[in-house]
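Minutes, project check-in
Item: structure for the 246-residue chain
Input as provided by the requester:
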Amino acid sequence: MSGKKRASPGADEEKNPLEGVELSDEDAKRLQEIQKQIERVDLLIERHSQQQLLPVYERRRAVVKAIPKFWPVALMNNPLISFQAQHNIDRIALSYLEDLWVTRDPKEPRCFTVEFYFKQNPYFTDSVLKKEYKYITPPGAADETPDADGLTPSMLDFSWERDYEDEESDMPAEAGSFFNFFEIASDPFDIGTTIANEVFPNATDHFLGNIPNDDLDTDEESEEDDDDDAEEIDLEEPRPKKQKKE
C-alpha cells in the first residue's frame, strides 16, 4: 500500500504571517504614551545617577592625580579616541594632560561640558580647554509647565540629532589635529560624546585596558604614520572645511 508523499516544508508558497500586521490608531497612541513614560523614568534615573556619582567622581579625581599620565592612557585606550589622535604630535601634547572632567547640567544631564586641564607645556597657551554641548530649546517650550519633577514635554522629546546647538555643520575636509575638536562648534567625529559617555564614567577600565578594542584601521594608516614627522600640525587651528555642494 503506497501512501501519499508528504510535501517538504516550504514546497508551497505561503503568505508570511508576520507581514501586514496593522496597528490601530488607539493602540499606536497607547504605545506612544507608554514610550513617553519610559523616557521620563530614564531621564529621572539619569538625574539621580549623576547626583550619586558626582561625589564618587570627585574622590576618583583626587586619586588619579597621583597616577602619572592616567588620563592620556585612558583616552588612548579608547578605540575611537586613539584613531582620531593618530598623529604623534597629538599624543605628545596629550601626555601633558593632568586632569579631565565632565560637568553635566543637573536638570538636563544629557547636556555637558568636557574639560581638559594641562600642566605647563609648549603646545597650548591656555591651560584649560573646554567644549560645551547644549541643546536648542524648541519653539513653545517657554510656555510649558514643568511637572512635579521639573520635566516638560520638550525635555522628553529631546533629540541630539535635531536639537543639538551646532553653529557649524560643515564636515572638516580632514580631521587634522585631535585638538581641533575644541575649536569648532560641531563634533563630526563624536569625540566629545565618546569622552563623556564612555571614557569619563569608565576611566579606570580604560586606563587598565579592560575594554573591547575595535580596530578602526584604514588602508592608509601606515602612510599617515610615516608622514607624522614630515607634516607640521597646528594644534590650535582647525583644518579648512569642505565646500558645500550647491
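Outcome recorded: Residues 217-231, 240-246 have pLDDT under 50 and may be disordered.
No further action items on this chain.
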